[in-house]
Amino acid sequence: MAKDKSGRSLSELQIDALREAGNIGAGNAAIALSQMVSKKVGLSTPKASLMRLSNVPELVGGPEAPVAGVYLNVTGDCSGSILLLLEEESALSLAGLMVPGDIEEADDLTVVKKSALQETGSILSASYLNALGQLTGLFFKPSVPGFAVDMAGAILDYVLVDLASSADYVLVVETDFMVSGVKVLGHLVLFPDLGTLSKILDRLGVPFE
After folding, report:
1. Distance CA 14, CA 205 (A)
2. Do residues 170 and 190 touch, judged by C-beta distance below 8 A?
3. CA angle, residues 104, 108, 109, in degrees to nearest 5
4. Does residue 137 belong to any structural domain of this protein?
5. Which conformational region is residue 180 in: left (phi greater than 0), alpha (psi within -120 to 50 degrees), or beta?
6. How far, in whole angstroms, is CA 172 from its chain's centroid?
């Protein structure tokens, strides 16, 4: 069993319900990405799991691994935050697909490419929130996204300071996208407030005892 920030245990049934929401959200994200790049987007079977926050950097190569991060606050019926983490290689690949004519600095993130990644993160996060909203009947409103290129550990530290929170467990949706033979691996990390997680689980039919 995993535990939420209050220390309460989450059952396998509750984790499965959260995973299902992640799966639907990832499918919606693939459709949105396909429309953005005007290419067919292949989608692997998404992996959704509840994991310790301290383990998240290992998904992208460790705390010192260079990554691109897109961060949004969530308001509406529930509150929380979402962070999209892209490994450096995946970020460059995705940026190249988004801005194919920007070939002068193919191995660097130009201002235009950073803007494209920021918009991509916003749309992918909204796709997940829309899926969660469809399953729960709740309204989630994402903020204007922030964007940063830094070490994975530094970006996570920034998020925690912004949240003024010491989250233990977070929901991570990991998905492989294949676009024109280019593999893009993204990690969507959801930081739900304590009351938010309870409300979501209640609407999914698997409330805390």
Report:
1. 9
2. yes
3. 105
4. yes
5. left
6. 7
Q: Is 108 helix (H, G, I), strand (E, B) or coil?
A: coil
pTM beyond cutoff 0.85? no
Sort 64 into a burial class: Cβ within 10 Å, 0-12 / 13-18 / 19+. exposed
**CA distances for 171 relative to 12, 109, 153, 163, angstroms:** 14, 28, 17, 16
> 102: pLDDT confidence band, cut at 50, 70 and 90?
low
State CA 150 to chain mean position distance. Answer: 17
Domain with residue 180: its CATH number is 3.40.1550.10
Q: How do residues 103-158 score in pLDDT, each as one tens digit?
A: 555 556 778 888 888 888 888 888 888 888 988 999 999 999 999 989 999 998 88
